[in-house]
Amino acid sequence: MAGTMFKLVVILAEPEIADRIVDDVKRLGARGYSRYEGYSEWRRGRGPDDAPGPHDFAGPHARIETVVRSEVAQAILDHLAVTYFEHYAVFAYLADATIARRDRYV
Amino acid sequence: MAGTMFKLVVILAEPEIADRIVDDVKRLGARGYSRYEGYSEWRRGRGPDDAPGPHDFAGPHARIETVVRSEVAQAILDHLAVTYFEHYAVFAYLADATIARRDRYV
Amino acid sequence: MAGTMFKLVVILAEPEIADRIVDDVKRLGARGYSRYEGYSEWRRGRGPDDAPGPHDFAGPHARIETVVRSEVAQAILDHLAVTYFEHYAVFAYLADATIARRDRYV
């Protein structure tokens, strides 16, 4: 395939921290991002009875996506974890993505 | 990468069965899901002339996503196939996803 | 997993060319697509100072997704690159996707 391997980073976050996360993503090296609105529910209660915990979430969320080099993806995840995971509802995952590079064609 | 391999399950479904599918996804083991609204068209007519069939679809859809362990992903796909594929417009796919686990950081 | 490997193609494009891209995607072999609305920013300035260039973009975009065979995915990317990359804000990437095939179940 004509393309280069990158990482897709998908971040679901409660709306009040979405703008901060966009700023973080740009500052950590992303050349772009996209943003969508959705609804989500998740629970993170852990313990003997898997009881609902303080990090459970149900409501509208911002979905922020960016496609970046692997090091940038890891830096974003580390930053999110250290900065937000304790006190905010933030969920993030990575997937492999092959991008169509403009400079391969024009 | 600091993360654990999971499966992203993406389900596109006609809106009237979206709530049922969310219930299915939670009952089958997902700890969370997210939901978006979109528009889609697809055709599944098969035969010598690839004629449009009864499962063709064009209209608004609900997009339901969840990130789960591989066994849960397979259980969700099997359930969708057996329960909905015959009579409803439902499309689903899986992709690998590496999640940022809160318990790795805090 | 009960499924077949396909390619997910994700295209982010400025809204005015979204309908054309949907037509392209269908003509190039996709049996379906889905479409969402979002907001995005990206910059593609390149040069010694990485200065903002004419292809920078900030605003609403259409997100067009399709899951297709690998050859169709490559044909779509090649077509997008040749047709739009020079004059429009279009970003595209591929990821592996395993689909739940109806004909495996019914």
Percentage of β-strand residues of chain A: 35-45%
Secondary-structure element order of chain A, as H and E?
EHEEHE
Helical fraction of chain A equals: 10-25%
Number of strands of chain A: 4
Largest sheet of chain A: 4 strands, antiparallel
Whole-angstrom Rg of chain A: 16 Å
Count of DSSP helices of chain A? 2
Oligomer: homotrimer
Question: Shape of chain A, please?
Answer: globular
Amino-to-carboxy terminus distance of chain A? 17 Å
Average pLDDT of chain A, rounded to a whole number, is 87
Spatial order of strands in the largest sheet of chain A = 2-3-1-4
Structural class of the secondary structure composition of chain A?
alpha+beta
The stretches of 5 or more residues of chain A where confidence is low (pLDDT under 50) are none
Find the biggest chain interface: A-B, 32 and 23 residues
Describe this structure in words.
- 3 copies of one chain form a homotrimer.
- Chain A has 106 residues and is of the alpha+beta class.
- Chain A has helices at 18-27, 70-84, and strands at 4-13, 32-42, 57-68, 90-99.
- Chain A starts with a strand and ends in a 7-residue tail after the last strand.
- Chains in contact: A-B, A-C, B-C.
- Chain B binds chain C through residues 10, 12, 36-44, 46, 55, 57, 61, 63, 70, 73-74, 77-78, 80-82, 85-86, 91-96, and chain C through 1-3, 6, 8, 31-36, 67, 95-100, 102-106.
